[in-house]
Specification:
Radius of gyration: 22 Å
Mean pLDDT: 94
Low-confidence stretches: none
Number of strands: 11
Number of domains: 3
Largest sheet: 5 strands, antiparallel
Distance between the termini: 33 Å
Oligomer: single chain
Helix content: 25-40%
Order of helices and strands: HHHEEEHHEEEHHEEEHHHEEHH
Number of helices: 12
Structural class: alpha+beta
Amino acid sequence: MQELFARAAALLLGNESDAGRDHDAELVLQALEYGVKSSDQIDSETANRARLLLAASRFSRVFELAAPDAPGLISFGAQFDPALADPLHDGSPMVGVSGVGLTLQEAFQGCIGEGIEYLSQLQAGTDLLLKPGIDDWTAKLGPKALELVAVLSERSLQPQRVYSWCRATRVTDGGEVLLPADICLRRPPAHRDFAPPYPLSIGSAAGPSRDAAALHGLLELIERDAASLWWRGGQLPRSIPVRHEAGRVAEELLQRLRHGAAAQRRTWLLDITTDIGVPCVAAVSCRSDGSGFAFGLAARPALEAAVRSAIVEMCQLELADAVVATKRNERGDGALNAQDRIHLQRAAVDAGQCKLLQPVAEHAAHLPLPATEASVIFGLIVERLEKLGIETFCIDLTRGRFAVPVIRVIAPGLQLEPSEIVTARLQDAMARTGGGATYTGGVALI
């Protein structure tokens, strides 16, 4: 398969000789709906698709999975060696990624894009890390960023060692700031100043352009902030208006995804939008008796888009749950890892009885985002966050080896989920409601 992906990339770019047709490579491109271009007609979209194929050719495995509860879902998985990014990571365990969609193209691009995103986050030997004095950066960070740095300093693995820092850009004015390297890059354990308090996948995204990647990363931060204020903060979800276009989108999408499933699951939507106003949705499903709780999260500029993405992610989690159940049945509880156990604990929540999973008869106010360009939407959301006292920073992690734009977005005032850090936003929500543990028993969502 690796060689076939490389041949398909060459064919896509018009680099294959006309002397002999490569039928297998043609079939790959046809399945992915990638049209072959002549070498003088290569646009940015075609170039990006070729880069994804070349990246796939370097992965150890790329495979397709079937979702029993959503036969209409197409899912790809892949595994790769982190040393693909840099020899610093020689000997690291294999990494697995996945992608889903309604078409082979969507699922393939999501899966390989996630792999490139991960590899681009890994520290490279050529990365310039700085070790400044404290006065070099404190004057340039706002209060929320300074609070985050202070909390991270308490997690130091070697208090006597001087921290390493990465250059980042403050979005509002384009100014350069320095942030701790261990929340900017995935560093080898022996190089770390502290263990990251949350998954470094949150807020990092690959995309066809830097603007698209930055917007995707920012939306993920807002999505996880909303999820935390809902699940841990105890903020009750709202309902989506009955006649809203999002309801029609959900109904048609679910019919397509669920068609042919042996057992039907109950599915409904929760609007978990926060004071930020960017539409955030949790799609929820369970078996008829309330067991097997699964969910999907999404923040998007429009409610309809958030609904679609949340439903697709929910089906992806249903598939993950099925994989964990199979693993447990075949190899026993001893074969389960920490993430598998979180899956089992969350799936045991009675979705029919948990109050946090029942929408109240209110509707959220959504921030108007009428633009279509990613850069404009990104700017409008950053302006909204600034009004709430939340700074936004960007780090360009694009690597020449893959040539696919990857951006990490950091917004220290937002509450991530999962995270060992509890921000003022989550503290305030818990103080108002008594906290989500009242309803969940403290079961982790993610």
